[in-house]
Design goal:
two-stranded antiparallel ribbon; mainly alpha; binds heme C; single chain; about 45% helix
């Protein structure tokens, strides 16, 4: 009797091990898939012209109001395709989450609310903090690219981590922005492939042909505003 019980418990232990071992290939496959998707491949030769061209290919996405409404100048978010200042006096606040009692999360949830003029939403919906405001408005393509590479301006990210950030729901929201908002027209697949190509080829930046940079003259140059939001009713 005692023996039989210990045999059956042995069998149970063996079955558990079998099950756990059978999970290993599955877990490993998932890990490899994820790493392949996110990590920059090693062994790809540095290609400055290719990287710069890949960056240029995503600039139209970066200039789209779905991105610029949180990455424009000022201490407030913007709304709509004409990027008018957010109604109701919404402010960046000390941490990007809004000022005083009017926090972004009061209205914005982790998903879009259905209906015209209802708050859009995605996980982590807020503005960059005033300490690192990540303002893209007014930057040339070269400067925008340099910002993406500057750990002191980009949230302490490597180019590979910028690629990873482009896969977050907050960024991908731009393709499913909710009722009444224009989605980013560039295909999401193309956008993600190009930002990855930029990082893989060494993350070189495009050279601005028409805009002088600080390097040209050796003194600071005030950025030329290339993005001009218009104001007024939509
Ligand atoms: C609701 C506001 C919001 C929207 C909309 C938004 N972002 Fe951001 N973005 C942020 C915040 C907040 C951060 C800082 C996150 C952090 O550091 O953890 C950020 C940081 C970034 C960064 C890294 C920092 C930098 O500037 O180098 C990139 C790249 C970026 N966003 C891309 C995009 C793209 C592309 C879109 C549009 C498809 C977009 N974002 C739309 C709020 C937004
Ligand atoms: C009192 C409610 C409320 C608060 C608080 C609020 N919002 Fe909004 N927000 C809205 C509503 C409603 C809309 C949609 C307006 C529309 O579609 O006409 C909106 C739209 C937006 C949009 C426009 C998206 C687009 O591309 O058109 C952005 C960006 C945004 N909010 C960011 C923020 C941020 C960041 C905060 C916090 C700093 C914040 N909001 C706080 C209600 C709010």
């Amino acid at each position: 009797m005692k023996n039989r019980r210990s045999i059956s418990s042995l069998l149970a232990v063996a079955a558990t091990y079998c099950f756990l071992f059978s999970l290993i290939p599955w877990v490993a496959a998932r890990g490899v898939e994820r790493t392949r998707a996110l990590l920059v491949h090693e062994g790809i030769p540095r290609d400055d012209a290719g990287a710069a061209a890949a960056f240029e290919a995503i600039v139209p996405v970066l200039h789209h109001p779905r991105c610029m409404n949180c990455h424009s100048a000022g201490d407030f978010p913007r709304q709509g395709d004409n990027s008018h200042p957010h109604t109701m006096q919404i402010r960046r606040g000390s941490d990007g989450q809004g000022a005083n009692a009017v926090r972004c999360s009061t209205c914005h949830q982790d998903h879009n609310l259905a209906g015209l003029h209802m708050p859009p939403g995605a996980p982590d919906w807020h503005l960059p903090s005033p300490a690192m405001p990540m303002i893209w408005e007014g930057l040339t393509d070269h400067q925008l690219c340099e910002l993406f590479k500057d750990p002191h301006g980009n949230g302490h990210r490597t180019p590979a981590q910028i690629v990873e950030h482009m896969h977050t729901p907050l960024v991908l929201w731009g393709w499913t922005p909710g009722d009444g908002r224009t989605p980013v027209p560039t295909s999401q697949h193309y956008f993600l492939a190009k930002i990855q190509e930029w990082a893989e080829k060494g993350a070189a930046c495009p050279v601005d042909v028409d805009a002088p940079t600080s390097e040209t003259f050796g003194f600071p140059v005030i950025p030329i505003t290339s993005y001009k939001p218009t104001f007024g009713p939509e």
